[in-house]
Amino acid sequence: MALRTRRYDMVVPHIASFLAVVALTVAGMPDGLSSIPITGPALSSCASEPRFFSCENTTPIKNTCCSPTPGGLVLATQFWSTYTGLEKHGQKLPKGSWTIHGLWPDNCDGSYEQYCDLSRQYDPAPSPAKFPNGTLIPPYKGPGVDTFIRQFGRKDLLAFMNKYWINQGAPNADLWAHEFSKHATCTSTFDVRCYGPSYRKHQDVINYYDAAIRAHHHYPTFDILAASGIVPSNKTSYTLDQFERALTSQIGATPYLGCTNNGTVLSEVWYFNHVSGTEQYGTFKPVESSAASSCSKSGPIWYYERSRGSEQEVREWVSRENVD
Ligand SMILES: *[C@@H]1O[C@H](CO)[C@@H](O)[C@H](O)[C@H]1NC(C)=O
Ligand SMILES: *[C@@H]1O[C@H](CO)[C@@H](O)[C@H](O)[C@H]1NC(C)=O
Ligand SMILES: *[C@@H]1O[C@H](CO)[C@@H](O)[C@H](O)[C@H]1NC(C)=O
């Protein structure tokens, strides 16, 4: 797609004051853009499609841009970790919140595909490194996906992701790239062709990040647990049943809880969904986890406090003067 005309091309040169205003506007925009572009897919043809929740359709799905298929079992996944390893570089965990892992397209039977489109391979360290047939998944060496976000002028998105979508032992953008190339390329509603003839390179990447964040907002794990009296503690442990009951009481379906250290340290949660419409804009319906928890069924489970210096306040204080 051709970029929209730069605003200064349209200016009548002798109107000096107008020029000044325009110069200011352009200065605040990313190169080559006069406004932040829309990154959503072209869905007008979806209006005539039948309505159903993914994995519950009784007839085959024809337009796969309208509903994720295969991959109709949609997982919104989150991490609980206590450090990032890059605290010195300012990479910290958000106080009072779990972090985003990704948005994954499982098949309705619980199996899944990965790295489905090598022309959209932006992961610098693919995991797995090879396909089952032994073919290497080539590590990406180009500019990070954070540069794609900047090219779309989405300072807001970048700021949010750097607060809530946090990697461990490597820069955040490596995790974002991994999630897009491993999972979004296998999700039909993010296929390049779904964006229509005006597709602009990488708009699917931006669109996936917005969608993963929207899904993440449905599941405020920290707040739900805290409201049931379950807060991170290095003194008191909990049981799997306590976590599951607290979350299920609000979600309406049991999520998957993942633990490390032989089932004793809580580290992740996966919320399973069927989706009516697209992952981008459709309605998520929570469904029971189809994976068995890796946490101990009867033993103590630790929901550890973050390490000192690994956490930061991510909400913003509004001063009295601004409120009044
Ligand atoms: C190996 O599997 C990948 C992914 O399914 C496929 O793209 C590739 O063509 C296969 N390579 C060979 C040599 O069969
Ligand atoms: C892991 O946990 C199981 C059951 O909770 C226990 O039987 C086993 O001994 C543990 N293994 C290790 C290495 O601690
Ligand atoms: C809590 O315990 C975990 C696990 O040992 C540790 O990593 C973390 O630093 C501890 N947090 C605090 C505040 O002591």
Structural write-up:
The protein has 324 residues and is of the alpha+beta class. The protein contains 8 helices and 7 strands, in the order H-E-E-E-H-H-H-H-H-H-E-E-E-E-H. The protein has helices spanning 16-27, 145-151, 155-164, 172-182, 203-217, 221-227, 240-251, 320-323; strands at 73-79, 93-94, 99-106, 256-260, 265-276, 283-287, 311-312. Mean pLDDT is 91; it is low at 1-27. It has a single domain, classed as Alpha-Beta Complex (Ribonuclease Rh, Chain A). It is globular and about 55 Å long. The protein binds 2-acetamido-2-deoxy-beta-D-glucopyranose (3 copies). Residues 82, 234, 304-305, 307-308 line the site of one 2-acetamido-2-deoxy-beta-D-glucopyranose. Residues 1-27 form the signal peptide.
Keywords:
Ribonuclease Rh, Chain A, five-stranded antiparallel β-sheet, two-stranded parallel sheet, 7 strands, about 25% helix, globular, disordered N terminus, binds 2-acetamido-2-deoxy-beta-D-glucopyranose, Ribonuclease_T2_eukaryotic, RNA binding, EC 4.6.1.19, signal
What series of H and E elements makes up the topology? HEEEHHHHHHEEEEH
Q: If classified by CATH, what would the architecture be?
A: Alpha-Beta Complex
* Count of individual helical segments: 8
Beta percentage is 5-15%
Give the helix proportion (percent range).
Answer: 10-25%
Mean pLDDT: 91
Q: Give the count of structural domains.
A: 1
CATH class: Alpha Beta
Query: Quick one: biggest sheet?
Result: 5 strands, antiparallel
CATH topology name, in short, is Ribonuclease Rh, Chain A
**Looking at this structure, what is the CATH superfamily?**
Ribonuclease T2-like
**How many strands in all?**
7
Please state the CA-atom Rg, rounded to the nearest Å. 22 Å
Structural class: alpha+beta
